[in-house]
Amino acid sequence: MLKNVKLGLLALAMGATMVACQNEGENTDAAANDAAPAVQPVSNESSSLVNDQATAAPAGPTTTITFDESEYNFGTVDAGEVVEHTYTFTNTGAEPLVISNAKGSCGCTVPDWPKEPVMPGQTGEIRVKFDSKNKNNTQRKKVTITANTEPAQTFLYISGEVKGVAKPAQPVQVTPQAQ
What's the gap between Cα 53 and its chain centre? Predict the structure, then answer.
């Protein structure tokens, strides 16, 4: 009996993993992708945030960040192309801006951000690469920026249309019918 339970749990875990991997290659549902991740305060006395997808905001004074744009539409690309876009921001607050993390909504979206503090009034860049391999149709991916800002998380989006690579036609064999 215990062996059957273990096998059942193993099968369930494998099925969930397969579904998660398959969903990553499917179209992105804009409404689901826009949903804010569940964030819970660590305590009433702390401003740190805990999230399984984000790093806690740096401790200390907060500042403000302003992006020139928060969404970039790359238009239409062929499946397999890598799209790159640079988002420019300004530290519009009075304290140094410290970005502790930047994370894409899936492995196909990879951000690169400044690791050093950005001083008040200075600008910085976050470069985002989107790999369209195994993606088809409309895509909208989110990048979550965690910094010493209020709120601690800011979102950037990269979107567009991915045209699937057409597979070559398979030859069809026709069998003559007997008369």
Answer: 10
pTM of the predicted model as reported, rounded to 2 decimal places: 0.63
| β strands within 92-152, DSSP E | 99-104, 109-112, 123-131, 137-147
Residues 6+ positions from 3 with CB-CB distance below 8 Å:
none
Count the Cβ atoms, other than its own, within 10 Å of residue 135: 26
Task: Give the residues across from 110 on adjacent strands.
Answer: 129
Are the C-beta atoms of residues 119 and 91 closer than 8 Å to each other? Answer: yes
The Cα 40–Cα 117 span in angstroms is: 26
CA angle 9, 14, 20 (to 5 degrees): 125
**What's the pLDDT tens digit per position in 107-157?**
999 999 999 999 999 999 999 999 999 999 999 999 999 999 999 999 999
- Alpha helix locations (H) across 26-140? 30-34
If one counts every other C-beta atom within 10 angstroms of the C-beta of residue 86, the result is 11
Residues 6+ apart with CB under 8 A from 140: 28, 30, 33, 157, 158, 159
Helix residue ranges per DSSP H, the chain: 2-25, 30-34
